[in-house]
Design a protein that fits this description.
By secondary structure, the protein is of the alpha/beta class. The chain has 14 helices and 19 strands. The longest helix is centred in the C-terminal third of the chain and has 25 residues. Bound molecules: 5'-deoxyadenosine (5AD) and iron/sulfur cluster (SF4). The site of 5'-deoxyadenosine has 12 residues, from β13.
Amino acid sequence: MSFRAAPRRARSPGSAGFAWWFGRQDLNKTLFIKTWGCQMNVYDSARMADVLAPLGYKPVDRPDDADMVILNTCHIREKASEKVFSELGRLRALKKRKAVGGGQMLLAVAGCVGQAEGAEILARAPYVDLVFGPQTFHRLPELVAEVREGRRNGDPGGVLDTEFPPESKFDFLPEEQGGQGLSAFLAVQEGCDKFCTFCVVPYTRGAEFSRPAASILAEARRLIQGGAREITLLGQNVNAWHGEAPEGGGHRWGLGSLVRAVAELEGLARLRYTTSHPRDLDEALMSAHGEVPQLMPFVHLPVQSGSDTILAAMNRRHTADDYRRQVDRLRQFRADLALSSDFIIGFPGESDADFAATLALIDDIGFAQAYSFKYSPRPGTPAAELDQQVPEAVKDERLAILQDRLNSQQRAFNQAAVGSVMPVLFDRSGRRPGQVMGRSPFMQAVHVAGDVSRLGALADVRITAAHPNSLSGRLVDSGPVEAASADALQAPEVIA
Ligand code: 5AD
Ligand code: SF4
């Protein structure tokens, strides 16, 4: 498999196909997007819907009701990409049924599987009309037009766009954004130059790119105007962000400066960022946790392994003790800071002693939550070529032990919250009538008895019970208590 972009006709936004399509738009079309993978994919899917909205596409909840179906895919592990082909099989049947009834359904594959396996998808599933990668979805109007034109010209082949174009998609995405709600994602950085030996991201998302601060701040203002109370700054390696400063002139900011500037925007209650790399966690960002009350005391900081040998083989370029020191430093700025992480089990060459080092790191840090995965060899990545692949049975055994350890840490973390009062940002109705749900500062789901007028507001909640993945509690006051919550968000003094 090659990750090279497939050659295709050069085009720029606003070319003839684009105009042709706009000329004959039908304003009653429906769109269904299924999203797999990371939050960046969730963000991208929302932006695809924004790009298609001027063409008349309105989101629907089921593929059966859709004139266009987009599968926004993830290639990070084998299981993630396998799902795409089984979903395509189901959609093929749906497309056939629609065709029998005289209807049409445009079927597209987007995201990292599209990027990595575009040509293969079109060969294996010729009923797919369009494949595009994460860097070209701003061209959707043209691509859709091209599919239609192809049909018009009797060309049955699907359209493929997996270029890494010279223009940044961020400069061409519509300012109008829908569907982001109270808790919004904002992509500030994309791609990665770290080349961890197990990871496809540098190949599927491309080189590290940081958006300029001015355009991020403008998007943040629009999100807040649209009702967002919480913003999560997104990037594959978000703390590598080093975008142009608002004053321009070649000046650059780091994420610490960006966090401070976004937090100052009127109306924003909470700010988060994800996903971080331990190597790029600088003092300016860490100190923001002690100085910016809107910045939540919860950091997703993947470590992958606690063994220095494995970390070196993964090309992570830090040791387990470096990680311990980073966490200590973060907690000097914010004593109650909670951590989440990612772990890969069974990386090639992982011995019992390496695995034991990972368990030791987990015991030392104490994670509020974590994700763990069995190592999955990804074609084209260096680790896939390594000898000493770990047998599946060993991976299974180690994963079960690791998850048991992480689950008990999560249960203990949730249990420790019982009896405390926490500010909760309510963002959705609960499962039962008369219940609302929100998030604690530490990302725990919290449900309370309350009505939907709470949605969008912060309120103090006394936690009454802990469950494995959530908390329940009681509203402290009968009305919204914004002022009290803001006080509660004040970070402790810097201890450093
Ligand atoms: N195998 C298993 N897990 C992987 N991840 C990335 N690549 C692989 C792989 N080849 C995990 C890492 C990363 C998370 C998003 O996915 O833990 O942090
Ligand atoms: Fe992949 Fe993250 Fe490593 Fe970049 S830093 S190569 S995104 S695991």
